[in-house]
Amino acid sequence: MENKPFLITKKLQPENQESPIHFLSPWLTPAKYFYRRNHFSYPPLTPRHLWLQISGNVSQPRSFHLYDILSMQAKSLILPLECAGNKRAHFNPKVYGEQWKDGAISQGKWTGVPLAHLLGQTGICNQTKEVLFEGVDFGRKPNKEDMIPYKRSLPLETALHPDTIIAYMYNDKPIDYKRGYPFRLIVPNWYGMASVKWLTKIELINDSFNGPFQTDDYVYYPHKHNDHDSFPVTTQQVNSIIQQPLPFSLLNTGVHEIKGIAWSGKGIITGVEISLDNGDTWQRTVLERLNEPYAWTKWSFLWHVEKKGEYSIYARAKDSQGRIQPIHAFWNRKGYGYNAVLKVNVKIE
């Protein structure tokens, strides 16, 4: 009987689970292994949630039924969604929040209709600055009494990008309930908080939205005790992980494959290097890409090792914008965007 991995539980209420990313090799993450990030309990859905309402600064407010959207020309994208708090557990000094390790990221094929196409049918009034998205899920934030829905906005330019889509399928099947059925916003290159699940309302606004998931959470706060120099979390950092070998593995002498994945929210991955001498020298790995503009890159390296002892394996990725993983992460008190070079320690016996 084949052994299979499981999701890694971080919290049950609301449910937050990591993907077993170190044991997944397909380009497309099966739905059952897709990481789960929730701020609230799963929402109750009714037939009215099969409608998507667009209002605000539009010429003609409209509501689109799921069947209306299914009848439109579709677009498919393969891309990774990554929680902004992915790798938070690696920060030093430690920060509060869900202690994600490496698995708050998954990649799949999303199919839907470009948001720009829907907005073309409602019209966009002058002075529109942002597009506001509201999910069905709701609840209370800690130390708050009021019930609030999950709401976030995008700059109009990002919302109108041809690859910002209203998705209704994942890996060629209807999006399942826990991943946002029936509608999920998909925003390529941005961290996952932008891809609102259970999407029910879209509103065009002429100012900057300042809801709690926009101007409190998902903000980089560089200082521990004040909000000076803060700025919003948006696109993914250049990043990578070592999938195999696992940390603190016991290995024999011989040939071992070191492998992993790399991704970036700006441009493409142009190289991944590994170091086996604590960063003194770096060696190139072999890259494997899909013909998809947003997909992560697989990388591998054959390590010939004959000398017994303890080793540290470092990996760092570079992208086409000239960004490279730093030795030290940009510390921020909510623990977003960790992308420092990670190391895996192994012992050759």
From TrEMBL:
GO molecular function: heme binding; molybdenum ion binding; molybdopterin cofactor binding; sulfite oxidase activity
GO terms under biological process: sulfur compound metabolic process
Keywords annotated in UniProt: Metal-binding, Molybdenum, Oxidoreductase
Domain Moybdenum cofactor oxidoreductase dimerisation: 236-348
Cofactor(s) annotated in UniProt: Mo-molybdopterin
SUPFAM superfamilies: E set domains, Oxidoreductase molybdopterin-binding domain
Domain Oxidoreductase molybdopterin-binding, residue spans: 41-211
Pfam families associated with the record: Mo-co_dimer, Oxidored_molyb
Keyword tRNA-binding on entry: no
Domain of life: Bacteria
Gene3D superfamilies per UniProt: 2.60.40.650, Oxidoreductase, molybdopterin-binding domain
Protein name per the record: Sulfite oxidase
Organism: Niallia endozanthoxylica
